[in-house]
Amino acid sequence: MRSTSRWIFAALLAIAATAAAAQAWPNRPVRFFVAGAAASAPDLIARILGESLAGMWGQQVIVDNRPGAAGNVGTAAAAKSPADGYNILFGQAAPLAMNQYLFTTLPFDAEKDFVPVVSAGLSPLMIAVNNDLPVRTLAELIALAKAQPGKINYGTSARGTLCIWPAQCSRTWQASSSSTCRTSRTRRQPPKPRRV
Fold first, then answer.
1. Half-sphere exposure of 43 (CA within 13 A, CB side)
2. What is d(CA 7, CA 9) in angstroms, rounded to the nearest whole number?
3. Does the predicted TM-score (pTM) go above 0.85?
């Protein structure tokens, strides 16, 4: 919680500094497009941040949830909105960084349509098991799954998104001794690093 508070405070300072530099902004409500459902991590952080910014700016901050298609729906809505500083994508990295490798086409171009401004938080991925299961490490879980093929099930919050990768990776590890996780949906090669 402490590191999340630091990220939110840093985001507030960065946005406040930007607002101070452009004194006439904002003179009307600001919209945060959240590429996730209500009560998701991005939604909650956007609402907390939005409430603080609304008080600082004296303008309403609207949290506009647009879940669906692994974040592509909300991200596309933000990309198609006017680039006037009043429509801001507030989301996770997956639609901008990962989805180009998971989907054959996207309704936006992450490199051309968006510029990262601030990181407002971190959302770690994890694998958790029922406390009654006799495992305490990933290695023990994989060993159990290998010993009992087809008997270990998993659940995830969103199919076809970054959230499913830990489980898919563990399925790959069960099937082979390789520690590389691959997906059959990968379509593009990662871009070469570029200077910003």
1. 12
2. 5
3. no
Q: Are 36 and 65 in contact (CB under 8 A)?
A: yes
Total number of residues shown for the chain: 196
Mean pLDDT of 122-145: 85
Q: Does residue 48 carry a pLDDT above 70?
A: yes
Contact 32, 50 (CB under 8 A): yes
Amino acid at 101: Y
| DSSP element (H, E) containing 89 | strand 87-90
Residues 6+ apart with CB under 8 A from 53: 12, 15, 16, 30, 61
Alpha-carbon distance of 162 to 158, in angstroms, equals: 8
Burial label for 144, CB within 10 Å (0-12, 13-18, 19+), is middle
